[in-house]
Amino acid sequence: RLIKKNMNKEILELTDFLNKSTVNDLSIIPWGAPIISFGNINTSKIATLGINPSNREFVDTNGIELNGNERRFPTLNSLRLDSWQNINENHLNAIHESCEEYFFRNPYDGWFKKLDYLISGTSMSYYFPSSEACHLDLIPYATAEKWSSLSSKKQNQLLELCSNTLASILENSSIEVLILNGQTVVDNFQKIADLELEKNIAQEWTLKRKSTKDVTGYSYEGFVSKIGNKYLNRKIKVLGYNHNIQSSFGITNEVNSSIRSWIKKKVNSVAYETK
C-alpha cells in the first residue's frame, strides 16, 4: 500500500542518518531503530505527542539490550546487520511492523498507561480492542541522555532534523487530534510548527505545594497545518496541557480526571469545528 511505502521511505531516510558520524554528537543511540510511531497511524484518530522515545524501549534498567519477548523494537543486533547501510525491504518492514504492533507486544506500560487513562474518556485507547490511538514523538530517535540533559544546541539540531518527519507521519495518518503531553512538548511543538496555541489557565489543574508557590495548570488549544517547512494536507486539532503526566510532582487523581474530562469534551467537539 502507498502509506506503507511512504512510511518505509521515511524509515529508510531516518536510518540513513544513523550512518553519519554526527549521530554520536547528538547522543542518539546509533544501534536502535528509529521509531515512527507507537501504534498504528492508519487506524488512529487521536495521537499523543512526546519529545522522543525512552532508552527503555531498547534497554533494561541495567542498560542491557532487551531480548526475546522483552524486545520492543529492532536493533542492528536483532536484524543481524553490521550497519544501517545494509538495510533492505525486509528490515524496513520489520521496523514498521514493530511500530504498528507495539501495544500488542511488550509496551512500556509504566509510561503509557498514565497517558492512556487521559484519553480513555474518548473511548479510544492505545490498547486492544480499540487501537484507535497511537503515540508519536517530535524526534523518532532514542537518546542515551534524557532530553533535559541535552544542551539547547543539541535539542535544536534534533528538532530541525526531524520536524519534516513528523509532518510526513501525520500526513500519511488518519489522525484528527494531537495531544501534547507537557510544557516541554508544547513549547517545542509551537517552535517547529511556528504557531502560538491559545493558552488558558485551568484552575482545577493547579498542583499544590507546601513550601513553594503552587504550580498553575494551563491548557493549550489550536490547529496545525504546517510543521517544519512542510504543509499538511489538512488541519489537525491540537490540544495540550503543561503538566508532564509521567514526571510532574503532585499530580493528583483529581487533576488527572479533570484533564481527562477536558480532552473528552474537546475531542468530541472536533467533528463540528472541522466541518
Quick synopsis:
The chain is of the alpha/beta class.
Task: Give an overview of the whole structure.
With 275 residues, the chain is an alpha/beta fold. The protein is built from 7 helices and 6 strands; from the N terminus they run ααβααβαβαβββα. The protein has a 6-stranded mixed beta sheet with strand order 2-1-3-6-5-4. A hairpin with a 2-residue loop joins β5 and β6 (230-241). α1 (2-18) packs across α3.
Continuous helix count: 7
The value of Rg in angstroms is 18 Å
Mean pLDDT across all amino acids: 94
| Major β-sheet annotation | 6 strands, mixed
Spatially, the strands of the biggest sheet line up as 2-1-3-6-5-4
Distance, first to last CA: 28 Å
Series of H and E elements: HHEHHEHEHEEEH
What oligomeric assembly is this protein in?
A: single chain
How does the overall form come out from the CA principal axes?
globular
The helix fraction, in percent, is 25-40%
Low-confidence stretches: none
Strand content: 5-15%
Can you count the beta strands?
6
SS-derived structural category: alpha/beta
Tell me the layout of helices and strands:
Blueprint: H1 2-18, H2 22-25, E1 46-50, H3 89-100, H4 109-119, E2 133-137, H5 152-171, E3 177-181, H6 183-193, E4 198-201, E5 218-227, E6 230-241, H7 253-273
